[in-house]
Amino acid sequence: xxxxxxxxxxxxxxxxxxxxxxxxxxxxxxxxxxxxxxxxxxxxxxxxxxxxxxxxxxxxxxxxxxxxxxxxxxxxxxxxxxxxxxxxxxxxxxxxxxxxxxxxxxxxxxxxxxxxxxxxxxxxxxxxxxxxxxxxxxxxxxxxxxxxxxxxxxxxxxxxxxxxxxxxxxxxxxxxxxxxxxxxxxxxxxxxxxxxx
Amino acid sequence: xxxxxxxxxxxxxxxxxxxxxxxxxxxxxxxxxxxxxxxxxxxxxxxxxxxxxxxxxxxxxxxxxxxxxxxxxxxxxxxxxxxxxxxxxxxxxxxxxxxxxxxxxxxxxxxxxxxxxxxxxxxxxxxxxxxxxxxxx
Lengths: 197, 137
What we know:
Helix content of chain A is 72%, strand content 0%. By secondary structure, chain A is mainly α. The termini of chain A are far apart.
């Protein structure tokens, strides 16, 4: 018996972007019991190895599928829309302008004294609001993908859009991380230079 | 991982940080980004329209030290070159000069993209300003 490497197949669930995470968790527990090492202690070495292998896929798969962003990134990669191999030409110029401006603003605020703190907090709220907007955009696109015929033009179009929304989300995430760092009193200065390289 | 002294030098004392007047017809602006690491890089050149020589170059990069070093080095190299010579700067030149490790090669690619984008923007502006030049070329 061979173990499916594909997370969706391994969990035996439909290849959809919108998932019932409660049902996923239930399935995770079932499969955890099924592949638990204790049940293989009297089996052959080969079967024991297979159980270990299955447990690894199970854990990876659960971590990936329960998180909407990781799930989308996984599906995009599987469907031939890799995230990590994009060049700048795939990023819309308006997004770059926007991210650049947000970074400029953040840098200015960071250089200010303690009085800049309320502004930083404002900026953070602003970014979190942007991320919430992005997340509802994502949910809508998930639904669009799920409703389309697999491999159809509509499905591909939805994946394409999801990828650009995820790019935007990545930038915003970084900005939130940077604001948090700035708010985390003096933490940015204490950080050794080498670590940022 | 050990980083070269040159990367550290450019990171700690970046050259030519700043911006040029984006609306000037002699200024080309390139804005590029790498979604996977969240970097964004703006690189600008000011070209002498008579000679085609880049008289000034500025950059501003939000990203890791290698991305900052790559764009800082790029602006140093751009000054004094003609627009066409500038297009010959390859990311591998940057990799070699800064001894960038393989995981940071994409930073040099970003810098090369930024140069091409800035020069492209300058050329577009010139062509738009002199429509007859398009017909001739």
